[in-house]
Design a protein that fits this description.
Oligomer: single chain
CATH topology of the largest domain: MetI-like fold
Order of helices and strands: HHHHHHHHHHH
Helix content: over 70%
Number of domains: 2
CATH superfamily of the largest domain: MetI-like
Distance between the termini: 43 Å
Largest sheet: none
Low-confidence stretches: none
Shape: flat
Mean pLDDT: 89
Radius of gyration: 24 Å
Number of strands: 0
Structural class: mainly alpha
Strand content: under 5%
Length: 262
């Protein structure tokens, strides 16, 4: 038997095993109990339209706030890390390593409770707290992505710009950064997905009902629900956000020729 035939039979065997597994699960699972636990129709009806008009809307808004702040701060940190000035590099490195090394939950607690204690005159709203906490964590990851993108720009382009009389700052702003962002769009989209899921940590700062995001809203409905349906609906709403972003990331990666940054 040829090597190609063996590979073909092995592939068929895997298909058969998967079909068999699906059949076993289909006949042995207690679907009535699963439906009772996760698909309570009355609970689903009670969650609409607030799960969309309040929770989903707020989740998207929180994510956009955090991503915008994180992208701006991440760009500054990336430039600091690439700077020839030692203290800039040390500060950027310390920030990136610290915020990449601690759980995002601790950042939310630190921003919500720590900043008012350190700066009594600073009164952050819930929106501002989310922006700083979520964006502060995202900035540490985006900074490394942006730095790798800047370093991936061919040096010949920088040399050509400098030979035309451009200053270092103008070269960076008009030549390097636009090309770097074209390279790093796919990983930035992945970071946007991560921030969407990290927005579920907002519950620690105690928001009002009209500021609930998906997880907080799901937990609130769960407390008076006879089933786990609210958690399932919240998860499906997250997929409404993350699945299109995942497809967008793959599309952008194909558009940029599959270039990756590390």
């Amino acid at each position: 038997m040829s090597k190609r035939k063996r590979a073909q039979y092995f592939r068929y065997a895997q298909y058969g095993l998967l079909i068999l597994l699906a059949v076993v699960i289909g006949f042995t699972a207690d679907w009535a109990q699963l439906q009772k636990a996760f698909l309570n129709v009355d609970t689903i009806v009670s969650m609409f339209p607030n799960v969309i008009t309040v929770a989903l809307k707020n989740t998207i808004f929180y994510t956009v706030l955090g991503f915008s702040f994180g992208l701006a701060l991440g760009l500054v940190l990336a430039l600091m890390k690439l700077s020839t000035v030692g203290p800039y590099r040390w500060i950027a490195t310390a920030y990136i390593e610290f915020f990449r090394g601690i759980p995002a939950l601790l950042v939310f607690i630190g921003v919500f409770f720590g900043l008012p204690l350190a700066f009594p005159q600073l009164q952050l709203t819930s929106w501002a707290t989310v922006m700083v906490a979520l964006g502060g964590v995202g900035a540490a990851y985006m900074a490394e992505t942006i730095r790798a993108g800047i370093q991936a720009v061919p040096k010949g382009q920088i040399e050509a710009a400098r030979s035309l009389g451009m200053s270092s700052s103008r070269t960076m702003i008009t030549i390097v950064i636009p090309q770097a962002f074209r390279i790093i769009l796919p990983p930035l989209t992945n970071e946007l997905i991560m921030l969407t899921k990290d927005s579920s940590l907002i519950y620690v700062i105690g928001v009002s009902r009209d500021q609930y995001e998906l997880t907080k809203y799901g937990r609130e409905v769960l407390s008076r629900s006879p089933s786990l349906t609210p958690i399932l609906i919240a998860g499906l709403c997250y997929l409404i956000i993350t699945l299109p972003l995942g497809y967008l990331s793959r599309y952008l990666e194909n558009r940029t020729g599959g270039k990756k940054v590390s």
